[in-house]
What we know:
Elements: H1 3-19, H2 24-43, H3 54-66, H4 71-90, H5 117-124, H6 132-147, H7 151-154, E1 162-163, E2 168-171, E3 178-181, H8 184-195, H9 221-234, H10 243-256, H11 261-268, H12 273-277, H13 284-294
Antiparallel strand pairs: 1-2, 2-3
Helix pairs in contact: 1-2, 2-4, 6-8, 6-10
Amino acid sequence: MSKLEMDIIQDFITECKLSGHMSKNTTKSYQCDLNKLQEYLDEQNITEVSRVTEKVLKDHLTRLSEKGYSPATIARNIVSIKALFKHLVKEKYVNLDASENLVAPKVELPKVNVLTRKQIEDLMNMPDTRTAKGQRDSAMLELMYATGIKVSELVAVKVSDIDMQLGNIECRNEKKDRVIPFDKRTKEVIQRYLQDGRRHLIKSTDEELLFINYQGEPMSRQGVWKLVKNYAGRADIRVPITPEALRHSFAAHLVERGADIEAVQLMMGHVSPVSTVRYARENRDYLRDVYDRTH
């Protein structure tokens, strides 16, 4: 491509950065993937964006496969290319979307354990909220399902991380901080725990952590695991269940209700949208529609 044509890609990346609707990791992925496309177009002496046809794009993807790139990486490249062409059509650089018929290769991901909504409801009803422990356990279960946070993140949540007015939680981990909203029901459960149950568990009013155990010490990941397993047994949920099942169920139910993949990706803290794709893999047409609308 000529310098002018190269600027089209850079303009797209800049727009992504300034939009405020896209994570830094997604923008970096777009940049990396489109750099590969640029290199291929240079090799083919294609200097005008109007000459980038569906065949050119498919040949580029075939080249990536021949170079040993995994199906997951190629799927991510397709997402990036589709995002670029959506931009090109919108800005009238091209009339037709050459990426429209690109189909991602099948990406094999570990099967995730997703609970039904009835199983979730039964689980949430198990804690005895007349007790301090029950109020704490109810708040933990609700927060895990309502936000999809990991156990390691849950046990590290501080009271100051919860914004009751806005209804969201600031989640911190080693990769990236993120803010996740939660619903009215979860807000009410947390509010009850903060106003009543928690004060019976803490040893000091200076305690920063939201969730603590009987001894007034931080909850452990193993403690949360046992808690979830115990309530699952009492709810007669006979499928294997761990705290991760609540995280997966959160994402799966959001996708089922029509949430955009990127929105779920941001809430889950996934680096790649491919990780989020697993929750919609049973319905390929639906997944394609979500991708088209999102990217």
